[in-house]
Amino acid sequence: MVTETSSDDGRAFRRETERVVNEIAQGLRRLDDGAGWFGSLSLVRQQGVLQAVTGYAMQAHMTAADGRVGVARSGVKPTANPSVMICMDPPRYGFAGLPFGEYVNAFRVLVSGFAVADARRRERYCKGACTHAWHNLSAAARTVGAPGTGPCA
């Protein structure tokens, strides 16, 4: 029997993805914890997360230099396919097209590179006057509870 995800479930999952990825990027959640969350998802959901994070990275204007720093932080070998892809100039973003066995490494590399690009973006363009909810997670975390708690911890 095949069941489809309701649109409400899809929106909730997109919000969860956005929260988890931005918590990792802002140092509120460890990359290993985020990779554990990612690894627990179905392959279809993993593909969706890779596509979402690709969009975040593109929006943050991630560069090959950001990718190299991200690879160094990710714990993934520089010769792994996702590492090579993200260090190209311009970075290649076809992570969801990789073999399933490379998805966790792709997530680690992509989120790590996004974290570098997004930190630069927050520093240059959002410093002191940012109203983006996803750039103000540290205040929300102090209000709601410690990172890593809640339904996906």
Question: What would you say about this model in short?
Answer:
The protein has 153 residues and is mainly α.
Can you characterise this structure?
It is a single chain. This protein has one domain (11-141). The longest helix is centred in the C-terminal third of the chain and has 23 residues, at 103-125. It is globular. The protein contains seven helices and no strands. It is mainly alpha-helical and 153 residues long. Helix 1 (7-25) packs across helix 6.
Cα distance spanning the termini: 29 Å
* Approximate helicity band: 55-70%
Strand and helix order = HHHHHHH
Low-confidence stretches: 139-153
Estimate the mean pLDDT confidence.
Answer: 82
Total beta strand runs: 0
Question: What's the gyration radius in Å?
Answer: 15 Å
- Summed up, the helix count is 7
Structural class: mainly alpha
Sheet with most strands: none
Number of domains: 1
Shape: globular
Report the portion of residues in β strands: under 5%
Write a concise keyword list for the protein shown above:
61% helix, 153 residues, disordered C terminus, mainly alpha
